[in-house]
């Protein structure tokens, strides 16, 4: 029955801000009397691939940390497959889910523990460089923003069809930098405004 | 069934910068968003999370020893795509203030009482037809610091996933006839009145339970439609 087209709706339900009080519902993180649906650690025991940590901060137009932001990531596994039946290549027993959620702390900081994704093809079948989708929600944001996290030192970045759409002087805002002395840790800041405003996508 | 997600549908959403909502001024991007074609990364999305939905998570009135104070209500409806098809098995998360307009969040310090029998968070999974149902307490209006004598209309926050990462929606459900609508910059950040009214639930007498609870219907339409509309037989 659910495949029956009832007739087009008049349009989508508009977005509203996540507001200042989402933490106890969406990112309780053990601090509230409510269990987490999602966490910032995507690694499961049987996950294959390079384990990485991505950490950084969210900053507003004054360069001040945003302590009430929520970040969500969506990514492929190390073989470039998504844990979604719409990706026909995905193995049904894949334990890696590819989705994570993290609220920023009092310093506007966040971190995700995950694996470096494999390459995913673009609509023409051309490989994209490894990337993670990032959605940014916060008080003051009426609609979440979408961006992508790419990886420093990744040769495929130069030929990535999406990075190529970003003005050359803004591409660096999408590239997580490998932290010195920590082989598996990357740094990625989200700047909502200003000279180094993160490049966001109209998707 | 493969859905497409035309960006034209995003016109229903508020602009990122809506100066009457002061907090948007320093948090809205100033450079244009960069258009791109959707790839498999955008067209897929998480299909889990519902396994963390526990029995009773969709009834916010039975999460504690006693019953919360306030007006018990039923909130139900369908999660739909833009063609009106139900979005099955998708996760809905809600959070809200108590009947006095107070959130349990530590940042909310406005002088209204907390209710020891009300957390104000709930989860549900839509069924095969996209239907969902919550039982809760009607939240109160509450003051905020946006401007002098600013009050938020009563609302329930909704977070919904849908079929892809670009169908993700966080919104607020309002109650019909709220006198605060015309003064609320968040509600009015949605420029089109018809679109704005899609955030307002409707009173549902047919599903109001006699002697027990008023019912409100709130259908949620997420992005996603067929590339070519199906022929009807």
What secondary-structure arrangement, pairings included, does this model have?
The complex is a heterodimer of chains A (203) and B (233).
Chain A: H1 23-26, E1 51-59, E2 69-74, E3 99-103, E4 109-115, E5 131-138, E6 145-151, E7 175-178, E8 185-187, E9 190-191, E10 201-202
Parallel strand pairs in A: 1-8, 1-9, 6-7
Antiparallel strand pairs in A: 1-4, 2-3, 2-5, 5-6, 7-8
Chain B: E1 3-4, E2 34-35, H1 40-43, E3 72-80, E4 91-96, E5 121-125, E6 131-137, E7 142-144, E8 150-152, E9 155-160, E10 169-174, H2 193-197, E11 202-203, E12 214-217, E13 220-221, E14 225-226
Parallel strand pairs in B: 3-12, 3-13
Antiparallel strand pairs in B: 1-14, 3-6, 4-5, 4-9, 7-8, 9-10, 11-12
Characterization of this structure:
The complex is a heterodimer of chains A (about 200) and B (about 230). Chain A is mostly beta strands. Chain A has a single domain (about 25-190), classed as Sandwich (Protocatechuate 3,4-Dioxygenase, subunit A). In chain A, about 0% of the residues lie in helices and about 25% in strands. Chain A has one helix at about 25; strands at about 50-60, 70-75, 100-105, 110-115, 130-140, 145-150, 175-180, 185, 190, 200. In chain A, strands 1, 2, 3, 4, 5, 6, 7, 8 and 9 form a nine-stranded mixed beta sheet that branches. The longest helix of chain A is centred in the N-terminal third of the chain and has 4 residues, at about 25. By secondary structure, chain B is mainly β. Chain B has a single domain (about 5-10, about 40-225), classed as Aromatic compound dioxygenase (Protocatechuate 3,4-Dioxygenase, subunit A, Sandwich), CATH 2.60.130. In chain B, about 5% of the residues lie in helices and about 25% in strands. Chain B contains two helices and 14 strands. The longest helix of chain B is centred in the last third of the chain and has 5 residues, at about 195. Chain B is globular, with a radius of gyration of 19 Å. The chains are: A mainly beta (about 200), B mainly beta (about 230). Chains A and B meet through helix 1, strand 5, strand 6 and strand 10 of A and strand 2, helix 1, strand 4, strand 5 and strand 10 of B.
């Amino acid at each position: 029955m659910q495949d029956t087209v009832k007739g087009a709706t008049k349009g989508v339900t508009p977005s509203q801000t996540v507001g200042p009080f989402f933490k106890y519902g969406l990112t309780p993180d053990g601090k509230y009397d409510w269990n987490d649906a999602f966490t910032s650690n995507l690694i499961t025991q049987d996950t294959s691939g390079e384990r990485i940590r991505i950490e950084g901060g969210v900053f507003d137009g004054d360069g001040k940390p945003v302590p009430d932001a929520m970040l969500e990531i969506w990514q492929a596994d190390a073989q470039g497959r998504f844990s979604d039946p719409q990706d026909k290549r995905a193995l049904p027993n894949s334990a890696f889910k590819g989705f994570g959620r993290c609220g920023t702390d009092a310093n506007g900081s966040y971190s995700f523990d995950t694996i470096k994704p494999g390459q995913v093809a673009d609509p023409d079948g051309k490989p994209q460089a490894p990337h993670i989708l990032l959605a940014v929600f916060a008080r003051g944001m009426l609609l979440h923003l979408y961006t992508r996290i790419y990886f420093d030192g990744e040769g495929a970045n130069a030929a990535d069809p999406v990075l190529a759409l970003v003005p050359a002087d803004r591409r660096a805002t999408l590239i997580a930098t490998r932290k010195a002395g920590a082989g598996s840790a990357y740094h990625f800041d989200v700047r909502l405004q200003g000279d180094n405003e993160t490049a966001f996508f109209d998707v | 069934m493969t859905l497409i997600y035309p960006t034209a549908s995003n016109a229903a959403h508020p602009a990122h910068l809506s100066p009457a909502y002061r907090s948007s001024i320093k948090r809205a991007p100033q450079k244009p968003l960069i258009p791109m074609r959707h790839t498999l990364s955008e067209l897929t999305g998480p299909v889990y999370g519902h396994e963390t939905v526990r029995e009773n998570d969709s009834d916010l009135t039975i999460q504690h020893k006693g019953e919360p104070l306030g007006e018990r209500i039923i909130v139900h409806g369908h999660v739909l795509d833009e063609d009106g098809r139900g979005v099955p098995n998708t996760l809905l998360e809600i959070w809200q203030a108590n009947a006095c307009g107070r959130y349990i969040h530590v940042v909310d310090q406005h002088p209204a009482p907390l209710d020891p029998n009300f957390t104000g968070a709930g989860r549900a999974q839509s069924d095969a037809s996209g239907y969902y149902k919550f039982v809760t307490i009607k939240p109160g209006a509450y003051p905020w610091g946006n401007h002098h004598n600013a009050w938020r209309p009563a609302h329930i926050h909704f977070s919904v996933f849908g079929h892809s990462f670009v169908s993700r929606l966080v919104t607020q459900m309002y109650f019909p006839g709220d006198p605060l609508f015309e003064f609320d910059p968040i509600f009015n950040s949605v420029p089109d009145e018809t679109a704005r009214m899609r955030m307002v639930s409707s009173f549902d007498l047919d599903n109001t339970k006699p002697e027990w609870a008023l019912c409100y219907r709130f259908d949620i339409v997420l992005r996603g439609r067929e590339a070519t509309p199906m022929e009807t037989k």
